[in-house]
């Protein structure tokens, strides 16, 4: 991931790195290159503009023009700004209730079911929690089966009511079951459509209202670039979710979603998905991601 962006940024900094003494024109040209590289990586244009404006202000403020190593100084400023663009600090899950409730949202194919399994597995193995997965996709019987397959891979039970079409009821029953059987975390996988539609939004908004989750996570395929950002905005306007999960960062993504989403929806990216396997999940660290981008 980010190979293209990394290469482009490296090339942008080359001029500055080679110069003993640099001029305002060198800096301006480098920043123009950086902005183009960001746009080509599918970063939202407003985000890219604000980014380079901020870097410029900082560079001039820190006297980059008279610095001994102006190239390195610029790289450091860009690094810190990239990290801050992606949220600065890693954001944690806040699981308070007993049982804690996590609601997944997102379009079909974004990776919700896979991520529900990955998160259950992570909470179980790393935090010694005792999760229960809940199948609330009542439209596609295959979705229920898929969650069961995931559950059996990680040895986490899956609550289903195949005959019931009322997701609010299913979720409330699952929470009762969790209380009765001692599961401390309920992870609710929901239905998604191929595009945002009112019925789906009504359903998940009502589900959120009903179960009052500790965390509502929005799962999105990072390969969809600008669309990922637009979908995030639509879901956030409706659901006011708590965090974003960026999936498929192992694929041929240009990285724009990772860089724009935080600014556009002002919600943190909490996790990333880096493969189809249950272990392919990472807590999102803006700082480490900035390291990766700058190579
Ligand atoms: P849902 O419809 O939102 O529940 O999406 P699924 O969980 O069924 O995922 C859709 C497809 O994406 C499946 O083939 C998954 O194996 C795949 N997938 C999910 N997450 C990742 C990921 O992080 N990386 C890759 N490469 N594939 C993923």
Automatic annotation (TrEMBL):
This protein's GO CC annotations: signal recognition particle
Residue stretches spanning the membrane: none
GO molecular function, one term: 7S RNA binding
Binding site for GTP: 106-113, 189-193, 247-250
Biological process annotations from GO: SRP-dependent cotranslational protein targeting to membrane
Keyword tRNA processing: no
Catalytic reaction equation(s): GTP + H2O = GDP + phosphate + H(+)
Enzyme class: hydrolase
Keywords tagged on the record: Cytoplasm, GTP-binding, Hydrolase, Nucleotide-binding, Ribonucleoprotein, RNA-binding, Signal recognition particle
Localization of this protein: Cytoplasm
Source species, domain of life: Bacteria
Domain SRP54-type proteins GTP-binding: 268-281
E.C. designation(s): 3.6.5.4
Description of how the protein assembles with itself and partners: Part of the signal recognition particle protein translocation system, which is composed of SRP and FtsY.
Family from the record: Belongs to the GTP-binding SRP family. SRP54 subfamily.
UniProt comment concerning the protein's domains: Composed of three domains: the N-terminal N domain, which is responsible for interactions with the ribosome, the central G domain, which binds GTP, and the C-terminal M domain, which binds the RNA and the signal sequence of the RNC.
Role played: Involved in targeting and insertion of nascent membrane proteins into the cytoplasmic membrane. Binds to the hydrophobic signal sequence of the ribosome-nascent chain (RNC) as it emerges from the ribosomes. The SRP-RNC complex is then targeted to the cytoplasmic membrane where it interacts with the SRP receptor FtsY.
Protein's UniProt name: Signal recognition particle protein
Species, as recorded: Hallella mizrahii
